Amino acid sequence: MTQETVHFPLAAVVAADSLKLALCLTAIDPQIGGVLIEGPRGMAKSTVARGLADLLGSGTFVTLPLGATEDRLVGTLDLDAALGQGQVKFSPGVLAKADGGVLYVDEVNLLADPLVDLLLDVAASGRNRVERDGISHEHAARFVLIGTMNPEEGELRPQLLDRFGLDVLLDGLPEPALRGEIVRRRLAFDSDPAGFCAQWAVAQQQLRERCASARQALAAIPLDDAALDEINRRCFAAAVDGLRADLVWLRAARAHAAWRGAVAITAVDIDAVAEFALRHRRRQADPGEPPAATEPPPSSPEQSPESSASDATALAPSPEGQWGAMPAQPEAVGPRRDVPSWPKKP
Prior knowledge:
Number of helices: 15
Strand content: 5-15%
CATH class of the largest domain: Alpha Beta
Distance between the termini: 38 Å
Mean pLDDT: 79
Radius of gyration: 26 Å
Low-confidence stretches: 290-323
Number of strands: 9
CATH topology of the largest domain: Rossmann fold
């Protein structure tokens, strides 16, 4: 008999409030497009993602191995039926198993480009079409796509990065008190998974019911023009490419309104999900956010013509040459996004 795997309850996760909120919003409206989780190793990214499956109802959680092949992802010919029975049958892949649940891709930035292309295309269309090896098959493949990555180990291509609806950056240095509570809860779960889940059953059920109620109320919340105009203005100011950010931001704001139990989208909802939608897309700072602190250039008193002439003479190249002089180094202007400095995996 196969024993059902017990997952760490999402309600028991310490801190990571922004990540839990982004995952709950995706559970409320899967059309948001999934979540990309950026952070160093050991930050419980997969633990939190597995907790999301319980909020979707189906509870299906499928992991795409890093070394998976294209056949393993989309499906292929059933060799047993072909060789043993002489029949052409389709053998479902990971995409078919993830239908209606969560597809978790660890280290998505290390996947081969052809696999990432297939994965994100199916995630956008909700259908998997296979035309190969004498097989013509199509099946539903609607799932919440959750990907994790460490930017220090390589970036996703911009067009693929944009296909993730929301992006969350985890802090790799929680405070000592939080670290202690995280370790205590993990040890309690490892020693008695069933007992730990029973302890958090009430809180987990409340979280599940809240997501279900928000999902039912989602259609009644209008995508009003006032909210759309504000999102359009801020996306334009952030210089994002395309219109996917506007659509994702509006859907996430509506899901947040449903999460709060509101009947309309307000500025609170727009601001709450702004960083999720813009972090991996912006090319300029969002005007709705405080400007980043920059170090002012050193001030100097006004120079007299004599001092200016002496400075120019001092800076002029000498006949012997400028030994040890270094050329000016290029500096990046207007970075697309900050990349934290995390240690690479050994």
